[in-house]
Amino acid sequence: MKTLKTLTAATLASLVAPAAYAEGIDAKVNEAFAAATGPFVSFIFAPLPGTTSFPWIVLWLVVAASVFTVYFGAVQFRFFSHAIRLVKGDYSDPNDAGEVSHFQALTTALSGTVGLGNIAGVAVAVGIGGPGATFWMILAGLLGMASKFTECTLGVKYRNEYEDGTVSGGPMYYISKGFRELGLPGGKALAVLFSIFCILGAFGGGNMFQANQAHAQITGIVGDYPGWITGVIFAGIVFAVIVGGIKSIANVTEKIVPLMGILYVGAALIILIVNYDKIGWAFGQIFAGAFTGLGVAGGMVGALIQGFKRAAFSNEAGVGSAAIAHSAVKTKEPITEGFVSLLEPLIDTVVICTMTALVIVISQQLMIDEATGQYMLNEAGSAIATIDGNTGVALTSAAFGSSISWFPYVLAIAVILFAFSTMISWSYYGLKAWTYLFGEGKLPELVFKLLFCVFIVIGAAASLGPVIDFSDAAIFAMAVVNIFALYFLMKLVRKELNSYATRLESGEIKSFAH
What is the pTM of this model? Predict the structure, then answer.
């Protein structure tokens, strides 16, 4: 028995030692990577002078959205009904150049933005800023519609159309071509910089983070198991979709996005119906909290900061990513895709994020002092105290589960679908940035797609905190380059808008609806 025990101990040691060694290496890699990239991450998410938690990048996005809203005369409201008709296909000419329909382009771009941020991110925003954060989130979402309109119009206007019917477009193309058309220097350098940030963001936030969170949700249902198994399964499914290009991706997203949207919003609506008597009270909390804070940390300013942050991080308006997907649309009128794209922040932020916030408020997971009617803060004083101390996705799950016990399983399925759809959309964004740098062709495309799938496995299997932080920073660095360029190019968009509006009013733009 002694020999057997010795052998067993030795065998266990031989199995544990490599795992411990691997964890040690992982920790060292994380530490080294954090040291190398920390200054860049800190710069992108640095707070404004005199504030403690309002990143300057959020103000950069919100100010741009406000400028575009004013400059284009509140285009998101004036042409809203026309945007709906375009998505329905009323003005779609089957002979137009491009690869996908208006609806497919919209769902592809939405699948890249609708994700964990709509579930976990909103819970963080409401948990810190209170219900009032929802009001400012909606306002920022409505303003962001103008940013999407601007960048996606340019995406189609300056796209490359090839003889085989494929197209390539996005900020890297409209920055380089638009600056050249206006006689401005630096367009090529800015386009290259944008492409680099886009590739880094695609591998990290658009890929590894999604795989990591999907694995966490699955293990929460079936129990713990190695992450590489989830990674391999996801990689195989993702590769099968993305190997066919944007048409294949669009064919999948036009089915998944409505499905996951209906699944998630439907679940939220059921909870709202069950608690219909609290809906008026919840909206009262949202409006009162927006201007008073209702006792949350930071008061009204805290609610505003959290709402604006959530909207900016959720719908990616101004980042430029959506312009890559919308560039593939079948149309000869660039402005039409600008109209279609302005629906994205509405769906992503105003509808889905607001649904999440309402469920959290109505479920009364946030603790209120009955004597004062103010929200109670946690021991650290940094966020609102919750019934079970939940934050993030756990808070959203508890809010859904408080009304119907099995709803957290529906939520888990939604998270997995969100992760998958985000990965396939960001694979296309990264691919177009990759081919801009390394040239069009089957070999460069295949290399990128294989690399993308390898990173899915890595993301699901490893703990890569600093890598994810860096990739998130890279995504918002895209916005720094993109918005800087949009300020120079927006006059070209207004020219397109005025021309189209005149022709639409005169009847020159004809509907193909039957």
Answer: 0.83
